[in-house]
Amino acid sequence: SDRFNREDFNGFNLMVMGIPNVGKSTIINKLRNTNLRVSGKATTTGAIAGVTRSVLERIKINANPPVYLYDTPGVLEPRIDKGLETIMRCAVCATLSDQLIGYRTIADYILYWLNRHNNHRYVKLLGLDTPSDDITEVLIKGSVYLENIVEHKSLEKGQMVKRPDVEHTAQQFVTAFRKGQLGRVMLDDDLLK
């Protein structure tokens, strides 16, 4: 039967799947560049979730035998039943859109997690005197220390007023955590116990 006729073999077709923002496109590019000794990107990558929006063309990653990979968008369960902790860990890792959760909320969870694990490196990063569990205080003092100040027109006074840009500071705090500037951590350390 034609089904078992191997003379028409034209290679392996594989699909790379996983949760958003874990490096699926990056690994496809690396495999292609290493095995075929070429340079450049066959598929687009980015530091945020959602760069790959649909299954794209197959990408050849090996010549003999011919192996082709399909890049796919990130996949999450339709419902996360494991609770808020799981959702926040996904948000911290940028598996969920930062705009969906909000930088301030993500920063609050990071602060909670760091304090719970006695990691107080954020104190120096944000110019604080002591550790704190109050995200508002941390972001205001951090904004002043980092000189993240915005000017806006006061409706009451009718003049320009300066205030701490806590949203920008929250974004910087989240980015610092993601880049490992507050130490390398494993958010799921409770699974190791």
From TrEMBL:
Domain G: 14-115
Listed SUPFAM superfamilies: P-loop containing nucleoside triphosphate hydrolases
Coiled-coil segments on the chain, per record: none
GO BP terms in the entry: mitochondrial translation
Gene3D superfamilies named among the record's database cross-references: 1.10.1580.10, P-loop containing nucleotide triphosphate hydrolases
Keywords attached to this entry: GTP-binding, Nucleotide-binding
One GO CC term, this protein: mitochondrion
The keyword Transferase appears for this protein: no
Keyword Cytoplasm appears in the UniProt entry: no
Example GO molecular function: GTPase activity
Pfam families: MMR_HSR1
Name of this protein: G domain-containing protein
Classification lineage: Eukaryota, Metazoa, Ecdysozoa, Arthropoda, Chelicerata
